[in-house]
UniProtKB/TrEMBL annotation:
This protein's name: Pyoverdine/dityrosine biosynthesis protein
Domain of life: Eukaryota
Signal sequence residues: 1-25
Protein's organism: [Torrubiella] hemipterigena
Keywords annotated in UniProt: Signal
Length: 268
């Protein structure tokens, strides 16, 4: 985001929490706390060009200046209902979109995959067919909410350029990699993975289970922050608090963080 600010000094990046957490059982309380942590990072990094917009503010329900934890909790359900009533699609329409649109299909397939672990508790004891059905139904509900947000943003912020961390053809949004990875690979969702650094300094978004034996966990401010490959921990690991987030302008110069075009994707 800082790269955008350096090129376009007048630009503002607006972040809105999409609002699908409840579909997979995340509470509104946890969603609020997550947003507060993001705001703390923005303040720490002095990213003055980044502005948060609550869905309730986007829809005109609650002015930004009046938003509090209590107000957020009180209006969360109403906000979701209003969003789906005014901008939502039916499940049949979502299924048709998944079939017809490559970007939507790519996002949907990614959601089905990560739901294997995201809702693992709900999958226990079910047959393979039942597990796949639950994953697909949940993914469609998430896509339904996502498309409602997309339509709301298009309607209420028509002059904004939409940025996305998911790969796409570039037809409806600009896809950027939040964490530039070696060889142009696109990162996993940051909230579904952690960062592991290899011996060459390359960043990888991985599941912690995949690197626990080969990497050491590095802490910042007493919290787990990233994994460093064991052979280089003693000599190369940054001191606590000195590690810089991967997405910054110097990294951007070295590695393209625009989404690679899918071989099957077509520009519409």
């Amino acid at each position: 985001m800082s790269c955008i600010g350096k090129k376009y000094t007048w630009a503002i990046t607006r972040l809105t929490l999409l609002g699908v957490a409840d579909v997979i059982g995340v509470t509104d309380q946890d969603t609020w706390e997550y947003g507060q942590e993001l705001r703390a990072i923005i303040a720490e990094k002095k990213l003055h060009h980044v502005v948060f917009v609550h869905p309730q503010t986007l829809l005109g329900m609650v002015p930004a200046s009046e938003m509090t934890r209590e107000k957020y909790m009180e209006t969360a359900d109403e906000c979701r209902s209003m969003l789906e009533a005014q901008y939502g699609s039916t499940i049949k329409e979502i299924e048709a979109l998944i079939t017809a649109d490559r970007d939507t299909n790519s996002t949907y397939c990614g959601m089905v995959k990560f739901l294997e672990t995201e809702i693992s508790a709900a999958l226990v004891g079910k047959s393979y067919k039942e597990r796949k059905r639950l994953q697909k139904d949940t993914a469609k509900k998430m896509m339904q909410r996502s498309e409602a947000f997309t339509m709301a943003i298009r309607s209420l912020r028509p002059m904004d350029v939409r940025l996305s961390m998911h790969p796409s053809s570039g037809a409806a949004k600009l896809s950027i990699s939040l964490i530039p990875c070696p060889k142009g690979f696109f990162q996993r969702s940051p909230w579904h993975s952690c960062v592991a650094i290899d011996a060459q300094g390359g960043y990888h978004c991985v599941h912690s289970e995949d690197v626990k034996m080969t990497h050491d966990l590095v802490y910042k401010n007493g919290r787990p922050y990233f994994y460093m490959v064991k052979e280089s921990v003693a000599e190369e690991a940054p001191a606590e608090g000195s590690f810089q987030a991967p997405l910054h302008v110097e990294v951007a110069k070295e590695a393209s963080f625009m989404a690679p075009m899918s071989p099957k994707a077509t520009v519409k």
